[in-house]
Amino acid sequence: MTVTINEITGGLGLRIDGNVYVVTEYSHVKPGKGSAFVRVKLKNLRTNLSIERTFKSSEKLEDVFLEEKFFQYLY
User: Fold this and answer.
1) Which residues pair with 52 in a beta bridge?
2) For a Cys staple, 41 with which of 21, 25, 45, 54, CB 3.0–4.6 Å?
3) How far is 60 from 7, CA to CA, in rounded Å?
């Protein structure tokens, strides 16, 4: 499923370049000159590295379903 940049929220899972990322922060920027864009901080789920990317408002990304489960080990 694809999602537009304007639909991004915190905690959303995205697949970018074959890696799965979680959106930690995002800000919509509309400069006085030029088109609007979104600056997003992403956390890689495999390596736990954080990156910051900028997307144009016309781009579309692949949405990934994420589910968090808590387990209790009984010995």
Assistant:
1) 41
2) 25
3) 10
